[in-house]
Amino acid sequence: MHNASRIAHARRTVQQLRIEASIERIKVSKASSDLMRYCGEHAKNDPLLMGIAASENPFKDKKPCTVL
Amino acid sequence: MGEMEELRKEAESLKDQITAARKTVQDTTLQEAAAGITAVGRVQLKTRKTLRGHLAKIYAMHWGADSTLCVSASQDGKLIVWDSITTNKVNAIPLKSSWVMTCAYAPSGNLVACGGLDNMCSIYNLKGKDGNVKVMRELAAHTGYLSCCRFLSDTEIITSSGDCTCVLWDIETGTEKTIFAGHLGDCMSLAVSPDFKFFISGACDFTAKLWDIREAQCRQTFSGHESDINAIGFFPNGNAVITGSDDATCKLYDLRADQELNTYQDSSIMCGVTSLAPSVSGRLLLAGYDDFNVNIWDTLKSERVGVLAGHDNRVSCIGVSSDGMACCTGSWDSFLKIWN
């Protein structure tokens, strides 16, 4: 019993490794340039990256100023 | 005996094949490719709101899709739904089990879910007829703690567990649709791809796995971390995965190149990463650490570009709202903070 389950586990491991070995891979240069292009295209719509004008920041408390 | 030895040899040979195939496509590194782009410059975010109300450690938070409401879970035994702009508590839901480790907001805004040491994922309906928030389903089958959960829709949710599996559930029938087995250690975290076709899991076997939800199959496994992976997220275009680990580093793995492209580490950082979230463009990575801070990394150049210091205990969870306007951190100090 013990041996049978070890073999079954080993078969599953090999089966899974076959799946993972068979995938198509793209070059790191292409993967990198795609990531860089995505960041570049979306940078202007990234408020944490670009900063937010106080008037457009829903989280910024708009306190009136009082001159004492 | 003969078959066992053959299988062992075949496994070793396949692992060598994978290593060689990854090297074959490694014609450059991301850092080299990004050398020419402009640096981000210092990112300084301020605490805009502090959400006060939990009475014990906060373990998890998740933004609603409207970028205003968010849900948090604390070991004071409560789930709180907050309006992050007014800081009002929209719902305060008492839990049967206070040992909660995760929470999630459904994309529709109708449901929230949580779970923890009770080994169950409890689904709550926020929009019940009489206005009361009640348990709608208790999803029970895991034989270990619930570490993370994420809704695909109002009818399906994926959970990760200390029993080393992830499960896709049918919420209406309360049954398991698919069990994703393969990790050799507790599954600690999961994230769903932007197109809802895949999810990734990070585990205590130091690996991250990419799963095809409908084919019910593990497609890829990513190694490299030297300790438990506690946090995981997709790069916003769905083509890369970011992990955070007890080994004090975060890593970026590209799915199509099938390999690690960057490590985010500094010799001065020696404590584990608990949580992470990319900004909406993917250029910034915000990661929470055991040393009470959040470090902000330039994902392309691998440089630290900012720190969020404001909590008095471990940062346990972090999330960036879907419109990218704010980052929310939750801490063992019982507070949530909204930063931008």
TrEMBL record, chain A:
InterPro entries: G-protein_gamma, G-protein_gamma-like_dom, GGL_sf. It is a lipid-anchor. It is found in: Cell membrane. Belongs to the G protein gamma family. The keyword Membrane applies. It comes from Zoarces viviparus (Viviparous eelpout). Its main location: membrane. It holds the Pfam family G-gamma. This is Guanine nucleotide-binding protein subunit gamma. It comes from the Eukaryota. Guanine nucleotide-binding proteins (G proteins) are involved as a modulator or transducer in various transmembrane signaling systems. The beta and gamma chains are required for the GTPase activity, for replacement of GDP by GTP, and for G protein-effector interaction. GO terms for molecular function: G-protein beta-subunit binding. One of its GO terms (biological process) is G protein-coupled receptor signaling pathway. PROSITE patterns: G_PROTEIN_GAMMA. The keyword Methyltransferase does not apply. The lineage of its organism: Eukaryota, Metazoa, Chordata, Craniata, Vertebrata. Coiled coil: none annotated. Residues 3-68 form the G protein gamma domain. G proteins are composed of 3 units; alpha, beta and gamma. Keywords: Cell membrane, Lipoprotein, Membrane, Methylation, Prenylation, Transducer. GO terms for cellular component: heterotrimeric G-protein complex. PANTHER family: GUANINE NUCLEOTIDE-BINDING PROTEIN GAMMA SUBUNIT (PTHR13809).
Automatic annotation (TrEMBL), chain B:
It comes from the Eukaryota. SMART domains: WD40. PROSITE patterns: WD_REPEATS_1, WD_REPEATS_2, WD_REPEATS_REGION. The keyword GTP-binding does not apply. GO terms for biological process: signal transduction. Belongs to the WD repeat G protein beta family. This is Guanine nucleotide-binding protein G(I)/G(S)/G(T) subunit beta-3-like. It comes from Zoarces viviparus (Viviparous eelpout). The lineage of its organism: Eukaryota, Metazoa, Chordata, Craniata, Vertebrata.
